[in-house]
């Protein structure tokens, strides 16, 4: 029988490290800007794309519909996002940053870049680039394992 050493199991390591980094960032965003991680992700994605639907945000960030919806509602209520009917699909809405949302993004983005710099400062640039490239390859391989119904092939 093969045993599983959780601490050496790469999917666990990815999850653990991701949670550790996200929790550190979340404390910073909450303290400085009153934002949760899902709210910050929405602000960042909307800033990068302009008008985007909640469904498109979910697909792009891998956040579930409920998380995206709650974050969008909170940000609209705070006056940071505007929600308008989607002319291409009347069942959805386009989200865009308000002027207050743009101001917030302009304040948060440099902090995010600084946190990333501080986390990776002790690693050589080529190692960081290789790490990011490997993460993207892991994404692609993992997505290829999942069929259209969301099942993992071979399971």
From TrEMBL:
Pfam families: MarR_2. PROSITE patterns: HTH_MARR_1, HTH_MARR_2. Residues 1-140 form the HTH marR-type domain. InterPro entries: HTH_MarR-typ, Metal_resp_HTH_trans_reg, Tscrpt_reg_MarR-type_CS, WH-like_DNA-bd_sf, WH_DNA-bd_sf. Keywords: DNA-binding, Transcription, Transcription regulation. SUPFAM superfamilies: Winged helix' DNA-binding domain. PANTHER family: HTH-TYPE TRANSCRIPTIONAL REGULATOR PCHR. This is Winged helix-turn-helix transcriptional regulator.
